[in-house]
């Protein structure tokens, strides 16, 4: 009986496996989501010219509208403090009462001195009038007449001096009631009843500050001020409104102050140590939310730029040199890379000054598929689709690389 080769089953298994491989190769391959070779889909936005209000965000601090340091104008012991620390006072309210006994006595003495001077004036005037008649008929000498006239003038001068002294003592007596020079909020008192104070002393008794309205002093680099002036002169920026520029505030905790203010003036000199100019704005402060010395950031309106082109920040990339670039879908449906010049960030967009024209379709979504010269399927970009993405923080005065 002939013997079968022991390797025959191995040959059969090899042939079956080869057939399976050939069958699999005959099936078409599928890419996840799209057939191989299909043009990638990108979201585009057609940029349009628009008028944009430009603003600069500048650091600053609040300052009281008016400040008055309360000091005594006469000396004496403080008998009473008549206000509550930290309360609002009105101009003329009595704040302190100084012991007025000595000043009252001085006032009484001045009244008596005036009465004496007025009493001496009566005979001096009568004598001068009689001597005037007698000298006319040569009954007395001219010298006697002159002496009587001089005595009258001296008596009149003594009355005037006594009146002035009485007025001075009356004023000093009034100064024993120390009043608020302005309306505002009064701070802590540096003295208590029983303290001895002196006229025009160096240390103030208290400080009154008017907080409504309130000033906000901010600093702006002189270079930015020059650029703004040149832009206004060239016509690329127009002034917003017909009066002072409006200013908005951001507080220390990041919240926005509800009431807008107005730019009041700017310093006429540049601080040589910082190269900055101080701007002063005035804000209403009816609720007393703003206190002197608070750190704030003021958003100052610079002007309105007509014909501006804004591109969402997510549509701008950086090349290897750090320069801003964007991809534009051309009329042939292919991507073009554009080198941009951006002036600043406005909200979540870049203000583009060079590199784009109105009507250009900028790729905003699908940039991972962006390759210059590649054909793409462009669809309109829907901003609401990207609302779930984390917001990008942008400063109104940031500038991009050029």
Features:
402 residues; alpha+beta; conserved putative lor/sdh protein from methanococcus maripaludis s2 fold; OB fold (Dihydrolipoamide Acetyltransferase, E2P); six-stranded mixed sheet; six-stranded antiparallel β-barrel; 20 strands; 25% helix; 34% strand; elongated
Q: Please describe the biggest sheet, giving its number of strands, its sense, and whether it closes into a barrel.
A: 6 strands, mixed
CATH superfamily of the largest domain, called what? Efflux pump adaptor protein, beta barrel domain
What do we call the CATH topology of the largest domain? Elongation Factor Tu (Ef-tu), domain 3
List the secondary-structure elements in sequence, H or E.
HEEEEEHHEEEEHEEEEEEEEEEE
Number of helices: 4
Give the end-to-end Cα distance, rounded to a whole number of Å.
94 Å
Count of distinct structural domains: 4
User: What is the name of the CATH architecture of the largest domain?
Assistant: Beta Barrel
Average pLDDT figure:
83
Please state roughly what percent of the residues sit in beta strands, choosing from under 5%, 5-15%, 15-25%, 25-35%, 35-45% or over 45%: 25-35%
Low-pLDDT residue intervals, each spanning 5 or more residues: 1-34, 385-402
Q: What percent of residues adopt helix (DSSP H or I)?
A: 10-25%
Total strands: the figure is 20
From the alpha carbons, calculate the radius of gyration and give it in angstroms.
44 Å
Helix-strand makeup class: alpha+beta
């Amino acid at each position: 009986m002939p013997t079968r080769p022991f390797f025959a089953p191995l040959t059969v298994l090899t042939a079956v496996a080869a057939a399976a491989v050939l069958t699999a190769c005959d099936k078409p391959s599928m890419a996840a989501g799209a057939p191989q070779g299909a043009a990638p889909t990108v979201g585009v936005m057609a940029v349009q010219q628009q008028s944009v209000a430009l603003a600069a965000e500048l650091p600053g601090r609040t300052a009281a509208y008016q400040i008055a340091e309360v000091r005594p104008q006469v000396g004496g012991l403080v008998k009473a403090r008549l206000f509550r620390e930290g309360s609002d006072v009105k101009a003329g309210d009595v704040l302190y009462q100084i012991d007025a006994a000595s000043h009252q006595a001085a006032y009484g003495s001045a009244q008596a001195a005036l009465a004496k001077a007025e009493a001496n004036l009566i005979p001096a005037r009568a004598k001068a009038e009689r001597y005037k008649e007698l000298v006319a008929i040569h009954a007395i000498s001219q010298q006697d007449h002159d002496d009587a006239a001089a005595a009258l003038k001296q008596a009149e001068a003594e009355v005037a001096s006594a009146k002035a002294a009485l007025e001075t003592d009356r004023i000093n007596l009034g100064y024993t009631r120390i009043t608020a020079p302005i309306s505002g909020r009064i701070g802590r008192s540096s003295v208590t009843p029983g303290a001895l104070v002196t006229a025009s002393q160096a240390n103030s008794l208290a400080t009154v500050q008017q907080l409504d309205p309130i000033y906000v002093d901010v600093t702006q680099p002189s270079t930015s001020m020059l650029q703004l002036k040149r832009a206004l002169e060239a016509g690329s920026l127009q002034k917003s409104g017909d009066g002072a520029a409006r200013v908005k505030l951001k507080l220390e905790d990041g919240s926005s102050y509800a009431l807008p203010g107005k730019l009041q003036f700017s310093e006429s000199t540049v601080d040589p140590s910082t190269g900055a100019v101080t701007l002063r704005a005035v804000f209403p402060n009816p609720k007393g939310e703003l206190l002197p010395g608070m750190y704030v950031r003021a958003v100052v309106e610079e002007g309105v730029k007509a014909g501006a082109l804004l591109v969402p920040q997510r549509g701008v990339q950086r090349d290897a040199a750090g320069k801003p670039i964007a991809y534009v879908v051309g009329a042939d449906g292919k991507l073009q890379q554009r080198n941009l010049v951006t002036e600043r960030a406005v909200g979540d967009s870049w203000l583009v000054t060079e590199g784009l024209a109105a009507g250009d379709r900028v790729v905003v979504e699908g940039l991972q598929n962006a390759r210059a010269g590649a054909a793409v399927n462009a669809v309109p970009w829907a901003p609401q689709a990207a609302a779930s993405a984390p917001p990008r923080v942008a400063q109104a005065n940031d500038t991009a690389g050029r």
